[in-house]
Amino acid sequence: MGSFQLEDFAAGWIGGAASVIVGHPLDTVKTRLQAGVGYGNTLSCIRMVYRRESVFGFFKGMSFPLASIAVYNAVVFGVFSNTQRFLSQHRCKELEASPTRTLSDLILASMVAGVVSVGLGGPVDLIKIRLQMQTQPFREADLHVKSSTMTRRQQPHYAGPVHCMAAIVRQEGLAGLYRGASAMLLRDVPGYCLYFIPYVFLNEWITPEARAGPSPSAVWLAGGLAGAISWGTATPMDVMKSRLQADGVYFSKYRGVLDCISQSYRQEGLKVFFRGITVNAVRGFPMSAAMFLGYELSLQAIRGDHAAMDP
User: Fold this and answer.
1) Which residue ranges does UniProt annotate as crossing the membrane (predicted)?
2) Residue 154 in 3-state DSSP?
3) Residue 70 covered by a domain
């Protein structure tokens, strides 16, 4: 069997679509908590979004992630699976042994997936956050702008994802699509290590040795726990990334990731780095459970390997 397999990309696409549908409402709440003002805690934010924008407010900006994040996850899962497969085959060929994966293979493959995710996912995340944030409440004191300008600017700034992308490129150039990329890199490289590695080991721990492969319930549980661990620990850099990417909808406040960290800490203290940690961890479970279950079931269907995962 060759080291490069396209079915990992196809299965990743299906898993990515499933995770977006399941997780987008809580993703909207997470973004508003991290980058918005006046929302208070998680429940307060949910009530305010519902009261102001009805249930549709939770799905704001979903069409673009559904179309693009599925592709993004296809690349991430495809790169991770093929990288760790290549590493294990290359190492075992030198040792003249059967291919097996080690912790070092998983770490390196996760890091490669994290770097690739920023290159592809940075613009996707930026546009999603801009669309989610454009109707948030702003305080005039925060913007230092005149009331007449404030009234005009509280109207939706972008007509949709294509208009949003065009506006960013027109105002900031192509580099503008990678606003917050440094914070995203600091989030995703360790974040994917704490995503894929716990999933692999939890799956092996839950699955009895006699079974040929994990059951759907084992995949669901291991995937959900891995997502909660990854998103919970990634929250500090996720807050900085959200703020940097939301910055620029109406005005620019931060000069870079270090300035964002400094200003956020100076104004709100240490607790700012844990804003949205609850919703991140809670959202991470169903999103990742859906992601891994969609990935594994579709991979099994594509390969026709019905013995790999028992119901």
Assistant:
1) 57-80
2) coil
3) yes
Annotate 248-283 with DSSP letters as a single string: TSS----SSHHHHHHHHHHHH-GGGGGTTHHHHHHH
Domain encompassing residue 18: 7-303
The domain tally of the chain equals 1
Contact of 310 with 217, CB cutoff 8 Å: no
Per DSSP, the residues of 31-82 read: HHHHH-SS--SHHHHHHHHHHHH-GGGGGTT-HHHHHHHHHHHHHHHHHHHH
Indicate whether 214 belongs to any domain. yes
Helices assigned H by DSSP within 147-276: 147-153, 161-172, 181-206, 216-233, 235-246, 257-268
Q: How many CB atoms lie within 10 A of CB 160?
A: 14
* 72 and 119 Cβ atoms separated by less than 8 Å: no
Contact criterion met (CB below 8 Å) for 134 and 61: no
The CATH code of the domain that includes 211 is 1.50.40.10
CA distances 282 to 118, 132, 276, 279, Å, are 23, 19, 10, 5
Give the count of beta carbons closer than 10 Å to the beta carbon of residue 44.
12
Q: Is 46 a domain residue?
A: yes
> Does residue 205 lie within any of the structural domains?
yes
